[in-house]
Amino acid sequence: MSIVSRRYAQALMNLAVKENQIEPVQEGLDSFANAVADSPRMKAFLDEPRVPQAAKEAAVSEILEKIQGPGMLTNFLRLITEKRRIGLLADIRADFHELADERMGRAHADVTVAAPLNENQEKTLREKLETLSGKQIDLRVHIDPTVLGGMVARIGSTVWDGSLRHQLNQIHQSILEG
After folding, report:
1. What confidence score (pLDDT) does residue 1 get?
2. In total, how many domains does the chain have?
3. For the chain, which residues score pLDDT lower than 50?
4. Which of 43, 83, 117, 150 has its CA 20 to 30 A from that of 171?
């Protein structure tokens, strides 16, 4: 991600907020980005500097007709194609998702545990993380037996390490330090 992609994503977010269209724009952006990513030939075509700009714009228009996204998104995607920024599409999409999550009070939590959690444990964990973060949590659970027990949770740049491995390391350090 770059400063440029972040600026484009912020501009798109500003338009989406103004028109109260955050979710439809996000869905349309995903549809467009997936259509490009699912076709390696299309991605290579759009990334190739020797391809005439008019041909790229025509290809983008074809995809836009198929996805039927909001008008502001269509205009935005045509603009970034015209400005030769279509190569930033994946980064713009990621930045837009981040901005949408912030605006809508959502966060992604990556949780690492030693063994799979049952449905009730996941629900309880999600609720506790929502209370801690003050946001609606999209929980992604990863299994890693090396944590031994407990869990390591990461939301953005905040990490809560309640793993048995971490606690044993702390005990080991305190013994070494005397």
Report:
1. 64
2. 2
3. none
4. 117
Q: pLDDT tens-digit profile of 140-173?
A: 999 999 888 888 999 888 888 888 788 888 888 8
Token pair in block for residue 98: 């981040």
Q: How far are the Cα atoms of 24, 92, 102, 139 from residue 128, in angstroms, in the given order?
A: 30, 31, 19, 11
Apex CA 159: angle with CA 90 and CA 7, to 5°? 30
Are 172 and 138 contacting, i.e. CB atoms less than 8 angstroms apart? no
Burial bucket for residue 170 (CB in 10 Å: 0-12, 13-18, 19+): exposed
Question: pTM for the complete prediction?
Answer: 0.72
Distance CA 132, CA 124 (A): 12
Which of 84, 102, 120 is a domain's end point? Answer: 102
Closest to 79 (Cα-Cα) out of 56, 52, 48: 56
Q: What was the pLDDT predicted at 95?
A: 94
d(CA 35, CA 93): 13
